[in-house]
UniProtKB/TrEMBL annotation:
Pfam family, one: adh_short_C2
InterPro entries hit by this protein: NAD(P)-bd_dom_sf, Sc_DH/Rdtase_CS, SDR, SDR_fam
Residues spanning the membrane: none
Coiled coil ranges: none
Protein name per Swiss-Prot or TrEMBL: 3-oxoacyl-[acyl-carrier protein] reductase
Family: Belongs to the short-chain dehydrogenases/reductases (SDR) family.
A molecular function (GO) term: 3-oxoacyl-[acyl-carrier-protein] reductase (NADPH) activity
Native source species: Paenibacillus endophyticus
Length: 248
């Protein structure tokens, strides 16, 4: 089996936020990094430069998670660079805030396509190589709202709940092959997604969290890294929620 430093991790939506923190965490351990993005070219390159400064071999690549054709081309490019992922982190996604009665069919289809179809396509495209080598890690970045639901986030919650079910089912399917599948479902994390709340609203949310603060992207990245380790091979089909005791 490869050593961790010989492995490659692909992080979808890896240019910023939790995705960037995950890339940096793996880069610090010398893992080969593939940073996927859609349009945030400069942000992805900035994260890549940070990872390279940590000593990692890094490739950035753009593809639309809604497009099987673009993702297939991404797979071909990674194969040509001998960087097919041993570890796939399905992190790329979009949020949606608003009452369900106001959600349009186009909004529904778009969020479903990015959050669920993208995860399905990436897993389907990259897991054959993992199965062939009898080692792999698929880690899906979900959300606390996929476990508990959130008012005015029905669409987003639905996609994350689907992600959790996908995780549990695929884990059973792949268990005999040496490939594990887990989900990390963060609570409130200090990212740009929190910018839609004002200071008073943020303070109110923090009061609801037993530890009294938001999580950091580095804390989420550490959990993702742990699940990717060879010694985590007995952990599969789990939805683990680092949320400061907010949801138990």
């Amino acid at each position: 089996m490869k050593t961790l430093q010989q492995m490659t991790v692909l992080i979808t939506g890896g240019g910023r936020g939790i995705g960037a923190a995950i890339a940096k965490r793996f880069a610090a351990e010398g893992v080969n990094i593939v940073i996927h993005y859609l349009e945030s070219h400069e942000t992805a390159n900035e994260t890549a430069r940070t990872c390279m400064a940590l000593g990692a071999n890094v490739l950035t690549i753009s593809a639309d998670l809604r497009s099987k054709e673009q993702l297939a081309r991404m797979r071909d490019k990674l194969e040509s660079h001998q960087m097919l992922p041993d570890i796939l982190v399905n992190n790329g996604g979009i949020s949606h805030y608003g009452m369900l009665m106001d959600v349009t069919e186009e909004e529904w289809d778009n969020v479903m396509s990015v959050n669920l179809k993208g995860m399905f396509l990436c897993s389907q495209l990259f897991m054959p190589n993992m199965v062939a080598q009898r080692y792999g890690r698929i880690i899906n970045v979900s959300s606390i709202w996929g476990m508990s639901g959130a008012s005015c986030e029905v669409l987003y919650s639905t996609t994350k709940g689907g992600m959790n079910a996908f995780t549990k089912a695929l884990a059973k399917e792949l268990a005999p092959t040496g490939v594990t599948v887990n989900a990390v479902a963060p609570g409130a994390v200090d990212t740009v997604m929190m910018d839609s709340f004002n200071a008073e609203e943020k303070a109110a949310i923090q009061q609801e969290i037993p530890v009294g603060r938001f999580g950091s992207t580095e804390e989420i990245a550490s959990l993702v890294y742990f699940l990717a380790l060879p010694e985590s091979s007995y952990i599969t089909g789990q939805v683990i929620s680092p949320n400061g005791g907010w949801h138990t």
